[in-house]
What does this fold into?
Amino acid sequence: MCDPYSIASTMMTVASAGSQYIGYRQQAAQAESQTAMYKQNRRNALTALTRQYGDIGQRQVQEQEAAYQRKEELTRQERARRARARVKAGESGVSGHSVNMALRDISGAAARDRSTVGRNLDWTLGQLQRRKHSARTKAENRINAVQPGQKPSKLALGIGLASTATRGYTRFLKSSPRS
It folds into this structure.
């Protein structure tokens, strides 16, 4: 029959090994939970990024359409001014170089205005592209703010269990009567 010390030593070894395994399972569950949080955070960040890209893209289209309409309006105004200038010149009996110069001035002013609209559009589109880049960077930072879980090492569990078993066996040998 086994002595009480051997039984207690064996029970302690089994309890210690069980405790290590339970700790391993808890760490594994925590890692799975952390990984699930990481995946959800990533999905949320990418969904928000997609919405921001859509909003910015829509704004870019709106800016382009507004610039096109403004350029068309400037062209209509130029044509109306040129027509009025021709009519006035005709009614006044003026023709030649001075009329041509006045018409060129009107066309030049309209061209500068259209160029300004185009340049402003380019600046606005550039700014909106930078917003897209910034949104992408924010999404990446948001994703990187939550790390995926790291599973506990099975090797470490095995080594820990082997160490516990070795200690228990050593205790058992020390407590056993020598023959």
The chain is about 90% helix and 0% strand. The helical segments are 4-92, 97-145, 154-175.
